[in-house]
Design a protein that fits this description.
With about 130 residues, the chain is mainly alpha-helical. The chain has five helices and two strands.
C-alpha cells in the first residue's frame, strides 16, 4: 500500500469510526430492543450498495473504494459490536430479542445493500 492510499484509508476509517461512535453511544430503542447497532449496519450496507454501482458506472479510481468501501464502511459497520450485543442478549436469556436482533441486522443489512444498488442503477440509467 502506497503512502497516499494509507492516508486515504485512514481518513475514511476515521470518518466511519467517528460516526459509528456517535450513533452507537446514543441509546436508541425500539421498545426494549436496542437498535443503534442495527441502524449503523443498515446505513453502512445501504451506502456500500450505492457505492458499488456508482463505482462501476463511473469506473472510479480504486482509491475511492479504499476510502469509502474499506475505510469508511469497514470502520462504520459493526459486525463485532453486533456479535457482542447478540451474545449479551443470549447471556441475559432474552432469546426473542436475540432472534429479532439477528434477523434485523442480517436481513435489513442485506435488504439495504440491495436497495442501495437498485436506487443507483435506476438513477444512473442512461
Amino acid at each position: 500500500m502506497k503512502g497516499i492510499e494509507f492516508l486515504i484509508l485512514g481518513l475514511g476509517a476515521l470518518a466511519g469510526a467517528f460516526l459509528r461512535y456517535k450513533i452507537a453511544d446514543s441509546p436508541i430503542l425500539l421498545g426494549v430492543l436496542p437498535i443503534n447497532i442495527l441502524i449503523i449496519n443498515v446505513i453502512g450496507s445501504f451506502i456500500l450498495g450505492m457505492f458499488v454501482v456508482i463505482s462501476m458506472h463511473f469506473d472510479l479510481d480504486p482509491k475511492y473504494s479504499v476510502f469509502l468501501a474499506i475505510g469508511f464502511c469497514g470502520s462504520f459497520t459493526t459486525m463485532s459490536s453486533f456479535a457482542l450485543q447478540s451474545v449479551s442478549l443470549i447471556d441475559s436469556k432474552h432469546f426473542v430479542l436475540f432472534g429479532l436482533n439477528l434477523i434485523g441486522n442480517v436481513g435489513l443489512s442485506i435488504l439495504a445493500l440491495v436497495t442501495g444498488r437498485m436506487i443507483m442503477v435506476a438513477v444512473l440509467r442512461p
